[in-house]
Amino acid sequence: MVKGAPIGVFDSGIGGLTVLEEIQQLLPHESLLYVADCGHIPYGEKTPAFILERSRSVAEFFRERGAKAFVIACNTATVAAVADLRRDYPDWPLVGMEPAVKPAAAATRSGVVGVLATTGTLQSAKFAALLDRFATDVRVVTQPCPGLVELIETGDLDSPVLHRLLQGYVEPLVGAGCDTIILGCTHYPFLKPLLAQMLPPNIILIDTGAAVARQLKRLLGERDLLAAGDPEPTQFWTSGDLFHLRNILPTLWKQPGIVRSFAS
Fold first, then answer.
1. Residue of 38, 145, 178, 185 marked catalytic
2. Can you give the CATH number for the domain in which 249 is found?
3. Within the chain, which residues score under 50 in pLDDT?
4. Is 185 a catalytic residue?
């Protein structure tokens, strides 16, 4: 591994762009590679074995391109694959996602925390373990959100259909008295402007993108792998519709980027 090598970031779709942005802000000298596995979205309804196979495929893709670190910017893929990948690549800095149960439990004033997440994340043993460890003194209200990721993937973040679906998911959390809501999928931070319209102003939204960027910086620093100088342009790959990602990327990323097909 060399300091100037790129960092690979992976998600089932465009949601990981919210994490990519946090990484770029904290580590502006790093060159970034991003794979969106849009051809197999949504991961929340897939089997753990399938997601692990896709994650391994992307990991090998990044290894071939000399990536010095791997970020799984997807809660569902982290649940299914991070333990196996850390065992497969013990020499590789690898950062995953997890719902921000600990900071949410610390932030709540009402003692009631809501979680918006995919079905796969909410049903996982890892999520149950987080609740057992950090949420013993609070009530956690979970809300699976089928269909939400697919609508965000269209790039239209203000559509009436998306608005209605999201409203139906947040109303039970507000009704239950939640004053803190965890955005338990990397796609969901794109909905913050819409959520701000729907939710009372006292409700706190928590996601983990910034924490992932800090962990990545720590791991790279420990290995003396932090880059200096000017980064290469960010490179993107998608296993889905190439032209769709090219069309929506300027709206979601707002910076130049090279987009190619991911055929692995």
1. 185
2. 3.40.50.1860
3. none
4. yes
